[in-house]
Amino acid sequence: MRKKFFLFYAFCASAILCFMGCKGEVVDEYTTHVASFRFDFQYGHTQSYLYAALNSTNYFCFLSTNPIDGGFDLVTEAYGNKEKNVEHVTEAVLNRSGRALGLNNSLIVGRSSFQNGELYVFDRQCPNCFNETNNKNFALKFKDSQNVYCDRCKRVYGLLNAGVVVSDSLQHSTNDKLFRYRATYSGTYFQVSSN
Q1: pTM summary value
Q2: Is the confidence at residue 55, as pLDDT, over 70?
Q3: DSSP conformational letter for 176
Q4: Among 14, 32, 35, 193, which residue carries the largest CB count within 10 Å?
Q5: Cβ(122)–Cβ(107) under 8 Å?
């Protein structure tokens, strides 16, 4: 009986440790920064890089919006494509979607085949530079189809493995991973939220 009791407590302790960081803090893979975006593909826009990123693996795009009269432009960029994809979206869709796209009005969206096609939505802002300076002007750029980098700190982040730092040529003392937002995609509706 004591052995079963000990095994039960050992299991509970190991489960708790799985949810704890090195400093005893609960590790949450999602950021508390604000992002709110809902997009309905029933109105079209299936030629955007966003649609491709949601419906395939190992393909990521940058997503941003620009307000214009009567709606906004949905702007997507993908590695290897010289042209940005810009599509006008009407005010009716805008009112249903909301447009808080992270710290610098830009997200990174895609799926990882390494994680069974898990959907990732990251803030395009370099998290380490933001944490060091509280400045939102450090937008990440594509290094290749699976990695993004920051011009300021020279860190490279892997998109296929939850946004961790995969290269740090300047050997910084901290290497926070990309800010990640909660997201769902039903095949028609794509939604990003902070909670």
Answers
A1: 0.82
A2: yes
A3: P
A4: 35
A5: yes
